[in-house]
C-alpha cells in the first residue's frame, strides 16, 4: 500500500477522530491500518496529539505560559515533552516551535546565543520581571492575581516554578512569582509593580545593587525589545 504524504485532508481527520472515539488511541501503526488511513503510525500519532485531540489549546502562548516555559527550560533544558506536561493543552511540538521561532529569534536580535550569560541576564532582569508585571496588571481586579492560571496546574508545577524563579530571577521577582502562585499578595496596585518590576522608562533601582547596575547597564539598550507598551508579548 502506497502511503500518503503531505497535508492531511478533512476526510482523513474525520476517519482518525472517529476511529479513536470508538477504539481509543495507541498502537499507532496498527491503528493507521485498521482505520483505513494510508498514513504512517507516526503521522497519525502526531496529527492526533498536535492538532485533533479535544484538549489541545489554540491561540498564542499566554504571558503565564511564557513565564512557565522560561523557568522550566532553565531547569530542564530542551526536554519539551517534560515541559509540556506542565502546560495543559500545549504540545511538546508547539512549545519547541515557540522556543525556536521566538526565544531564539530574540537572542539573535541581541547578537548572542540562548545559553549565553548575556541572554540569561536579559531574561532575568528584563523579560521575567515584565512578564510578571503584565500578569499582575491584567489580574489586578481579581482577588487572586492569576487564579485562573494556577488552578490549571498541579502542585508540582507550582513548586518547580517557584524554585526556578528563585534560581533564575532576582529575589523581588521570585517573591512576586511565589505570591502569584500561592494566591497572596504583599503589596497593592502600582506600588507592587514598582517594587517588583523594571519600568518602561528605565531600570527600577530596587531590583539592582550598584554593582548589578554597573554590570548590566548595557541591557538598557535592549529596553525597546521588552517594552510593555511597544513590544508584542506573544513571542
Structure, explained:
The chain is mostly helical. 58% of the residues lie in helices and 0% in strands. The model is unreliable at 144-158 and 164-235 (pLDDT under 50).
Report the total helices. Answer: 12
User: How many β strands by DSSP?
Assistant: 0
Q: Low-confidence spans: pLDDT under 50, at least 5 residues?
A: 144-158, 164-235
CA radius of gyration: 21 Å
Share of helical residues: 55-70%
CATH architecture of the domain at 63-138: Orthogonal Bundle
Biggest sheet details: none
Q: What's the rounded overall pLDDT mean? A: 70
Percent of sequence in beta strands: under 5%
Give the CATH level 1 class of the domain at 63-138.
Mainly Alpha
Primary descriptors:
235 residues, 12 helices, sequence-specific DNA binding, 0% strand
Sequence-ordered SSE layout with sheet pairings:
Layout: H1 10-23, H2 28-34, H3 41-52, H4 63-76, H5 80-84, H6 92-109, H7 117-138, H8 147-150, H9 155-168, H10 171-182, H11 189-196, H12 210-216
Short description:
With 235 residues, this protein is mainly α. It has twelve helices and no strands.
Amino acid at each position: 500500500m502506497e502511503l500518503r504524504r503531505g497535508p492531511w485532508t478533512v476526510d482523513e481527520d474525520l476517519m482518525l477522530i472517529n476511529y479513536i472515539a470508538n477504539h481509543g488511541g495507541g498502537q499507532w501503526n496498527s491503528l493507521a491500518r485498521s482505520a483505513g488511513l494510508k498514513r504512517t503510525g507516526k503521522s497519525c500519532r502526531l496529527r492526533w496529539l498536535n492538532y485533533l485531540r479535544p484538549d489541545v489549546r489554540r491561540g498564542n502562548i499566554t504571558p503565564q505560559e511564557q513565564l512557565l516555559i522560561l523557568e522550566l527550560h532553565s531547569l530542564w533544558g530542551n526536554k519539551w515533552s517534560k515541559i509540556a506536561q506542565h502546560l495543559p493543552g500545549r504540545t511538546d511540538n508547539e512549545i519547541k516551535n515557540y522556543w525556536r521561532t521566538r526565544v531564539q529569534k530574540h537572542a539573535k536580535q541581541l547578537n548572542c546565543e540562548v545559553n549565553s550569560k548575556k541572554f540569561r541576564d536579559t531574561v532575568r532582569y528584563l523579560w521575567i520581571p515584565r512578564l510578571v508585571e503584565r500578569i499582575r496588571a491584567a489580574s489586578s481586579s481579581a482577588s487572586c492575581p492569576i487564579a485562573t492560571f494556577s488552578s490549571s496546574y498541579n502542585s508540582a508545577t507550582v513548586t518547580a516554578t517557584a524554585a526556578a524563579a528563585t534560581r533564575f530571577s532576582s529575589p523581588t521577582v521570585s517573591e512576586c512569582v511565589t505570591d502569584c502562585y500561592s494566591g497572596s499578595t504583599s503589596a497593592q496596585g502600582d506600588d507592587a509593580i514598582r517594587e517588583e518590576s523594571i519600568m518602561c522608562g528605565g531600570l527600577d533601582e530596587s531590583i539592582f545593587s550598584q554593582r548589578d547596575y554597573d554590570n548590566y547597564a548595557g541591557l538598557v539598550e535592549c529596553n525597546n525589545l521588552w517594552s510593555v507598551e511597544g513590544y508584542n508579548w506573544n513571542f
